[in-house]
């Protein structure tokens, strides 16, 4: 077979996937980008190079507040999830006997497969005024009146943290078990206590894994519509919620597109900020 | 220290299982509110849900979309992986990047882009358009999983088949595909689990026939209900069964 027909044959294999990605991902994405510079006159769409949508994003309080709210929630969720997941992964990796580790890990991430929409609803069952926590606290006499847990930012963050603790436990565990036990032995032999071993040996070695998991958390969290919509109430809106409002009630596709572009830009910035620690090829 | 570790483990598992435990427990509630006190157990909500045509139709739609879109994603992903792993093509790193690109964008943006284009071109929304969106998000995963398992050790078998006179089609169908069956199956199952549970793309790109997550979403507006608990428990059971089957068959076999 000559090199020429080989290459042509190779293209034949790659072409369908490539065309699909171009037609249904790249082109829609470019159209969305162009749409973000279009504008609405009355109800009709005018293409062009208008900065109206971006100016609106910077000046209308409910729009730029959504960007801030999204950032605050996403950063909180990322930090809290890493801090809670790391000890869990470490306990499974270092304290649970090896033959039980696979089972412990499987159990720790099983609820990950709860249906996506149902997962937020399940937290509503726990956090609602008449829900599990309030009823239990009232029954044991700790409180007299139900406290407000659902429809708050606390509820949104709880729902998110629950999901990402499972995800991060998985990625951090994968990192921890790759570490040779010799590192820990060497540190102990050289007189390091448990905290020093962690601080100077284990933590630096697992930083790439943490960064990868944290980046994944950031990306998935900032783009999620369901969790804040179900658990957050409507006191404050996140970017995906505002995008959906623009699509639904107002059919303002240009503004929704501009918001989507800003959301992507934030993800890009997060990527650049964490790139030096990331090893996405090892996920 | 040791006690603290076990205490943390128990606490963490409590947190992880609190919502799904509550969900399942109160799906057996004998009453109209899925909150304490628990009365029951009763199966009334399961019988009601399974007799509800809207729910069973949506469940069926979800399975169709999941299986159809996963089959397309795995087929395209397999062909692309074969082409890029076995043929020297100019710009192959760029093409790999392009095929993986949809993974870096949130589902909402994928759905929004497609919605805009479909709106502009006047194509009506249906289960097919939702399926197209699901192929977009699952193709990168299928491609990456299959590409990663295209080791050089398989290449010798392919070369031997070619030397013995097999056409390229025969090599792909009779040699490469069977050798990669575990990776192909893993990619397919992962695609199915992701697609059948996907909400935002299905929500944006369907209209009259809807998938199960979209149906659940519309039921959510009427607040807490044991019906939702029952549906959620059924979906959880199906997903967990799929995951366990994957864990104990394919992944185990690959290890040994």
Automatic annotation (TrEMBL), chain A:
Transmembrane is among the record's keywords: yes
One cellular component term from this protein's GO annotations in UniProt: plasma membrane
Its membrane topology: Multi-pass membrane protein
BP terms from Gene Ontology: transmembrane transport
Subcellular localization, as worded in the UniProt entry: Cell membrane
Protein's UniProt keywords contain Cell inner membrane: no
Transmembrane region(s): 12-38, 62-91, 103-124, 160-180, 201-226, 253-273
InterPro entries per UniProt: MetI-like, MetI-like_sf
CDD domains, per the entry: TM_PBP2 (cd06261)
Domain annotation ABC transmembrane type-1: ranges: 67-274
Annotated family: Belongs to the binding-protein-dependent transport system permease family. CysTW subfamily.
Protein name: Spermidine/putrescine ABC transporter permease
From TrEMBL, chain B:
CDD domains with a match to the protein in the record: TM_PBP2
Keyword presence, Transmembrane helix: yes
Bilayer disposition of the protein: Multi-pass membrane protein
Bilayer-spanning residue ranges: 7-28, 63-85, 97-118, 124-150, 171-196, 230-251
GO CC aspect terms: plasma membrane
InterPro entries cross-referenced by the UniProt entry: Bact_Polyamine_Transport, MetI-like, MetI-like_sf
Keywords: Cell membrane, Membrane, Transmembrane, Transmembrane helix, Transport
PROSITE patterns, alphabetized: ABC_TM1 (PS50928)
Family: Belongs to the binding-protein-dependent transport system permease family. CysTW subfamily.
PANTHER family per the UniProt record, alphabetical: PUTRESCINE TRANSPORT SYSTEM PERMEASE PROTEIN POTI (PTHR43848:SF2)
Protein name per Swiss-Prot or TrEMBL: ABC transporter permease
Originating organism: Marivita geojedonensis
